[in-house]
């Protein structure tokens, strides 16, 4: 079962690892399928999943991961931004209002944020980057176009032995 080690970081045990490995391959696997595949009792699987998916649990909330092309936005870009820390909260509020912003991360280094956006084409990307520049506290941006996804987001390899 998950436990806390160090500074409150949840640590998962071998049974949790096994459940997560199957879910990585089959995210919609049922409790019955997990129990049968892993030779565990259904109650055990239900209890483990409840702890893993609890608000303070280690499993991120389940969300639909659409391919940008499926919603008519085949162009992906990463915008790095320098921010005025005094207006940070308002800036995040403004960024969240731009629908094409699909992820925003606080980062270290020359920039303060990495913002992933999706766009229809180069003209649309220009419009989006201009909207980002109008957000409170954005000082400067730099945009890199995603040419190809080489390794898609993955976590299953972390559940290995």
TrEMBL record:
One of its GO terms (molecular function) is sequence-specific DNA binding. InterPro entries: AsnC-type_HTH_dom (IPR000485), Dimeric_a/b-barrel (IPR011008), Tscrpt_reg_AsnC-like (IPR019888), Tscrpt_reg_AsnC/Lrp_C (IPR019887), WH-like_DNA-bd_sf (IPR036388), WH_DNA-bd_sf (IPR036390). It comes from the Bacteria. GO terms for cellular component: cytosol. The keyword DNA-binding applies. Pfam families: AsnC_trans_reg, HTH_AsnC-type. Keywords: DNA-binding, Transcription, Transcription regulation. GO terms for biological process: response to amino acid. Residues 81-149 form the Transcription regulator AsnC/Lrp ligand binding domain. SMART domains: HTH_ASNC (SM00344). Residues 12-52 form the HTH asnC-type domain. This is Transcriptional regulators. The lineage of its organism: Bacteria, Bacillati, Actinomycetota, Actinomycetes, Mycobacteriales.
């Amino acid at each position: 079962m998950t436990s806390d080690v160090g500074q409150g970081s949840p640590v998962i045990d071998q049974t949790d690892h096994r459940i997560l490995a199957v879910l990585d391959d089959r995210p919609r696997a049922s409790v019955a399928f997990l129990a049968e595949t892993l030779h565990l009792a259904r109650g055990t699987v239900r209890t483990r999943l409840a702890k893993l998916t609890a608000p303070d649990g280690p499993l991120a909330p389940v969300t639909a991961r659409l391919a940008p092309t499926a919603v008519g936005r085949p162009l992906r870009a990463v915008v790095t931004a320098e921010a005025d820390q005094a207006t940070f909260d308002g800036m995040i509020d403004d960024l969240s209002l731009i629908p094409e912003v699909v992820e925003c991360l606080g980062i270290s280094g020359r920039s303060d944020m990495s913002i992933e956006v999706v766009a229809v084409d180069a003209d649309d990307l220009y419009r989006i980057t201009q909207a980002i520049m109008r957000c409170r506290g954005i000082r400067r941006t730099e945009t890199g176009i995603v040419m190809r996804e080489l390794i898609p987001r993955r976590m299953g390899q972390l559940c290995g032995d």
